[in-house]
Amino acid sequence: MIRPAPAWFVFALTLAGSGCGEDPSEANRGALEAAPVDTIGHLGRVHVILQPSPDELEPEPQLQIQARFVEYRNVAEAFVRARAKLPVPVWEQLEVGQCVASSSLLPSAPPMPAGEPELSLIDAGDLRVTIGRHDVVVPLVLVPDILPWLSGVEYVHVDDRMPELAVEPDGSFPLAITVDGTPELGLERFELAIRLPAALELQGAGIDPAGRLTIDWQPAGELARFGDKPTQAILLRLQAFQPSQPSDDIPEPSGEELTCLVPDNGRAALEIAALQSAGLATGAALLRVAASRFDSRTIDTGAFEGVELIVELRDQRTLPLLAPPTGE
Questions:
Q1: What DSSP string runs through 226-261?
Q2: 8 A C-beta contact, residue 187 and residue 181
Q3: Which residue, 187, 199, 203, 275, is the most exposed by fewest CB within 10 angstroms?
């Protein structure tokens, strides 16, 4: 049974006057310390990221697919998420309108449990992702044999070119995920088919006379749907860049990268003072903005309850950070 994750559907906060909330890493740390140890458990995730238009300054792959299916013993789930690189999704850690340092969203280094931990990343059979008319069979990769209690395989596919899309007149296109499963290891076959909305297009960033950082994108959320669901929020990741020397044409990161969850209405207006407090270098010349529309669902299959199926449609641009009018 597939069920939508409740993450961002329940929030109805507006962004006007939004600020930066408390550090989610504190909650992560408490969960690691307080979570009870399970005798045996299972975690799984398939994560697909599509970025049709690469950033000119820092190009990233147009297609990234990663999946892990973990059977674990004698450890708590929080320990597994930290060690198996399966952190709680960002949109489940933030409220709409909240911005925090991206580093605070990563799980803290977990303490070793008292018993002997065992984390096995299992082979789940063939994993196929169909994008438009193109099938990608995601290859298996051995997990580095560094820790004696962590072993197995993961699925990884990275491509600098997006497959040809079967785009509808409204700009949407189909995507399907199929996992053949390994019943003898407790993982049954499952699949998901959805229609992705038109690609995001970041349009500009600047500081308005009211002292807010504004970021614009199209199309707005009322025109975008993941399958049968209108998009309600998007992720923004913000990193300022500044040349290391006045005569240097190569910009370098300045300050902290921030992650924000904002309403998908075509414009974010974020209070400068709150962003500065969280670590963003708002006086820099350039601002790299990565915007992601996302669909997050879970599916129960065999012994694996709540396998996470995540699809992100991303655009990334490094934009001039325009100063507000002087009033002259």
A1: ETTEE--EEEEEEEEEEESSTT--SEEEEEEEEEEE
A2: yes
A3: 203
Alpha-carbon gap, residue 151 to 120, rounded angstroms = 5
Count of CB atoms within 10 A of residue 232's CB?
18
Tell me how many degrees the CA angle 21-24-25 measures, rounded to the nearest 5. Answer: 140
pTM value?
0.81
* Choice among 84-93, 132-141, 179-188, 239-248 with the minimum mean pLDDT: 239-248
Q: Check: CB of residue 8 under 8 Å from CB of residue 48.
A: no
Q: Tokens 């310390």 belong to which residue?
A: 33
Q: Mean pLDDT of all residues in the chain? A: 81
Nearest to 287 by CA among 236, 245, 234: 236
The C-alpha angle 294, 300, 303, rounded to 5 degrees, equals 135
**Residue 157: half-sphere exposure toward Cβ, Cα within 13 Å:** 23
